[in-house]
Design a protein that fits this description.
The protein has about 425 residues and is mainly α. About 85% of the residues lie in helices and about 0% in strands.
Length: about 425
């Protein structure tokens, strides 16, 4: 108890307690920005990787699958580590892992070397995303939690935008190329030192962890104390929590199957199947990601006023509608509108997702439940890039996008019918 309290007091002396949530937001935004940029570094490098390592479409797609498998494992473990060791400590270690692991990719010389270090980096990527959102949710008051978390999610999209700009500048440059794009990922290591110095663990976690340690130290033999040793035991032994966990596993599966499938292959679709030059393609992607940033922020603001559930469902179903429109009905005249509108609705579910999920579970199991459900969903996300690559080898990338549209529809339907909102306040 005293050790945890001393951490909080020491950190609070560096920054006034009423300002800490601002620091948490800034660090979280920068971490998610680099998280998002890291994912898109691979998407923009795929064409060059295919040439240099002589990859088939399926092998290229498998790199996205390996990334998402690593993110799933990292996210599940990261959620557990956040409950056991602390939110801030877990974020710091995750950033160090994905930053260093991604930088090493620039030195790889074969498909298997690249795949191995991509998996290592992905462990940190997956854990950082879940833990950042949990940390932020436990610092922000309920009345504007979704606005702040929606804006935090925009950091991921800003990362997409940053990656698009960097890819356009670095990859075509005769003195740099795709390898230097990955070396950029070393920069976030600096964040870990500052975050360790400035941000304390949230009070709700400190108190919950103190109770857990006290119960363990005193050897309480009650059933409740025994269950406190295992968050997963609580989840699966309690029907109400188990049902919510399963619903979020399914919803997260459909969301990420669509999101990562489209995100991984959209640049290649515009360049290869729509015949855009690389520079023009990156310009279209900048517009799409800018609209996505706006979509996440607006979604958070609206969700604080009319509810998480309707906004989430609307965004997912709207994305399901726009994907077939892009594939089947695009023309040179309407593609700008279609890509911009799609970018806006594409971002809406993620603008609400973090708040919606964290408010579905109580503090003592929140990290484990959110990390588990979201990252079980990455199993389907891991299938998506390979599935589109498989379809591209036998037909077109566009066919895969139509399948992604179906996933988005189910992603919106499930919460609309079955998942209530605001079940728990993360600050209590």
């Amino acid at each position: 108890m005293s050790a945890e309290t001393s951490v909080s007091v020491t950190s609070a002396s560096v920054l006034p307690r009423d300002k800490i949530w601002i620091a948490v937001f800034i660090f979280g935004f920068l971490v998610l920005m680099m998280d998002g940029a890291d994912l898109m570094f691979l998407a923009y490098s795929l064409a060059e990787l295919k040439k240099e390592f002589q990859l088939t479409q399926s092998e290229a797609g498998s790199l996205g699958t390996i990334t998402l498998i690593g993110m799933a494992i990292g996210g599940i473990y990261g959620g557990w580590a956040a409950d056991r060791f602390g939110r801030v400590k877990t974020v710091i270690w995750c950033v160090a892992i994905f930053s260093i692991g991604t930088a090493i990719l620039g030195a790889t010389q074969s498909y298997w070397q690249f795949a191995f270090f991509r998996f290592i980096a992905a462990l940190g990527l997956g854990a950082a995303y879940v833990t950042c959102n949990t940390l932020m949710a436990e610092y922000v008051p309920t009345r504007y939690r979704t606005t702040v978390l929606g804006t935090l999610q925009a950091g991921w999209s800003v990362g997409y935008l940053l990656a698009t700009i960097l890819a356009g500048l670095i990859i075509p440059h005769p003195d740099y190329g795709w390898r230097w794009l990955f070396y950029v990922a070393l920069i976030p290591v600096v964040l870990t030192l500052l975050m360790h110095w400035m941000v304390p663990e949230p009070r709700s976690w400190v108190e919950a962890n103190a109770r857990r340690l006290l119960e363990k130290a005193e050897g309480i033999a009650s059933q409740a104390a025994q269950k406190a040793e295992s968050a997963y035991k609580i989840i699966f032994d309690t029907p109400r929590i188990r049902n919510m966990f399963i619903l979020w596993c399914l919803t997260a599966s459909f969301l990420q199957f669509g999101y990562y499938g489209v995100g991984n292959w959209m640049p290649s679709y515009l360049e290869k199947e729509m015949g855009m030059e690389f520079k023009k393609m990156t310009e279209y992607m900048v517009g799409t990601y800018t609209a996505m940033i706006l979509g996440k922020i607006v979604a958070g603001w609206v969700a604080d006023r009319i509810g998480r559930r309707p906004v989430y469902a609307f965004g997912a179903i709207a994305a399901a509608v726009f994907l077939p429109l892009i594939v089947l009905y695009h023309t040179p005249e309407n593609i700008v509108f279609l890509m911009t509108a799609f970018g806006f609705v594409y971002g809406i579910p993620y603008g609400v997702n973090a708040t919606y999920m964290t408010e579905s579970f109580e503090t003592r199991i929140r990290g484990t439940a959110v990390g588990g459900a979201y990252n079980v969903g990455r199993i389907m996300a891991a299938v998506a890039p390979f599935a589109i690559g498989f379809l591209a080898d036998r037909g077109s990338i566009g066919t895969g996008f139509l399948v992604m549209g179906g996933a988005y529809f189910l992603c919106g339907l499930l919460p609309a019918l079955f998942i209530k909102e605001k079940l728990y306040d993360p600050q209590k």
